[in-house]
Amino acid sequence: MPVFSYDEFSLFHENASEWDLDVPGPSVQRFFLAVDGLRQLSGLRWGESDPEIVLVHGGAQNAHTFDTVALALDRPLLALDLPGHGHSDAGPFGASAIANHALDLERALEQLTRGALPLVGMSLGGLCSILVAAERPDLVRSLVLIDITPGVNADKAKHITDFVNGPRMFDNFDELLARTIEHNPTRSVSSLRRGILHNAVQRPDGTWVWRHQQHPQSDLSAPDAGDLWEKLGALTMPLALIRGMARGSVVDDDDEAELLRRVPEATVIHVADAGHSIQGDQPVELAKILERVCF
């Protein structure tokens, strides 16, 4: 059986090549920091200067989902792994416990940043980021939501949860890749292969498992948004929604209208040819949008 050698910093040239980015080799470091005395949160620090923006991924993803966006931005930034995702320790309350995830994010930002920064959250990370912005506005200069609003529900997210809550183990890498291709027909095989290497691990017996499914209570569900619409409407910092307009988005017209009803001054930007994972489908366009709305 093949044993895959994984160096998480060795694949950036593939991202740059696939998207025709003429950028120097990035300076990227993985860090770990304590969030409650028992658990650690991890992430990637891009660049050697103080970070200028913070990126938070969606459920069943990890910080590397923003690699191409980070290359295109070419700014010092932080990309964080949510609890139980990537290289972060799992929390005790499950993979979709946004209130607990938000508290971990707040503790991390207190240690990693020197002042309020633009906070960009995709999907599950976006819901967590709403809570961070509501509870700790001193840490958030502006909030950007990537294809998510508090209007998410089980029906809208079903195509995503069906995929990520699928088989918990794969006999080999090719089996895992085939399932991923089947559920992501618009993405290149090379990008999906790269994503798997970042987001899955090979066990000693040769089988493969998603990183987020290594932990107890790892199944994802549509999070209980609770009063997030109320919290969103009370925010005082600039707000932007970046919405994918292709198949797979979990945001519909009613969600967009409700967001603008509650925050009339919010910016809404549609991205054609992108579904839910805008950072995967159109990462360079997303980087251009972030330049406009965050800086």
Detailed description of the structure:
This protein is of the alpha/beta class and 295 residues long. It has a single domain, classed as Alpha/Beta hydrolase fold, catalytic domain (Rossmann fold), CATH 3.40.50. It contains eleven helices and ten strands. The chain has helices spanning 12-18, 67-73, 98-112, 124-135, 154-164, 173-183, 189-199, 228-233, 253-262, 278-281, 283-294, and strands spanning 28-34, 40-46, 54-56, 77-80, 117-122, 140-146, 200-202, 208-210, 239-244, 267-271. The chain has an eight-stranded mixed beta sheet, sandwiched between helices. The mean pLDDT is 92.
List the helices and strands and how they pair.
Layout: H1 12-18, E1 28-34, E2 40-46, E3 54-56, H2 67-73, E4 77-80, H3 98-112, E5 117-122, H4 124-135, E6 140-146, H5 154-164, H6 173-183, H7 189-199, E7 200-202, E8 208-210, H8 228-233, E9 239-244, H9 253-262, E10 267-271, H10 278-281, H11 283-294
Parallel strand pairs: 3-4, 3-5, 5-6, 6-9, 9-10
Antiparallel strand pairs: 1-2, 2-4, 7-8
Helix pairs in contact: 2-11, 3-4, 6-7
How would you concisely characterize the structure shown here?
The protein is built from eleven helices and ten strands. The chain is an alpha/beta fold and 295 residues long. The protein has one domain (12-294): Alpha/Beta hydrolase fold, catalytic domain (Rossmann fold), CATH 3.40.50.
